[in-house]
Amino acid sequence: MKAGGSQPVTGKTLMNTSELEHKARWVRRTVLDKIAECGKGHIGGTYSCVDLLVALYYGDILNFDPKNPKWEDRDRFFIGKGHACLALYSIFKDLGMISQEMFDEYGSDGGRLGGQLDVSTPGVEYNTGSLGHVLGIAAGVALAAKLDSREHRAYAIMGDAECY
Questions:
Q1: Which pTM value belongs to this model?
Q2: Containing H/E element for 87?
Q3: Which terminus of the chain has a lower count of CB atoms within 10 Å, N or C?
Q4: 91 or 3, which is more confident
């Protein structure tokens, strides 16, 4: 149980370091296979944050429920480098937040999963595309939670382009 009494994900298993490393390799392989299959994707920016994403989603850091992505007491995760979406899509598929069918639509015309994150995808907190906003958005969400005496946290990952 997380500090403050909010309930963690049901059925979530804590992974050890070796399992987390294996999961990160699996995510990278899934990303590479999908990019090779559809000819679209941003491998460098995606690979650079895989370890962080695996730690957040599988390392008992982020408090969330994959069966209920809009759970009110979930921690909020924001990623500014929206082109890294394929790593998140792979994790969301693995956790059952999106279907294999939806995942397979990545890179196809008219598919539900595009090259940037969109709030219509379960587990995505905000639309990406404009760099430099993620830190302010996450800070605002964290401040609102504090002012409302809520216990959820806000996490943000920024790309190097956002720091200019």
A1: 0.89
A2: helix 85-94
A3: C
A4: 91
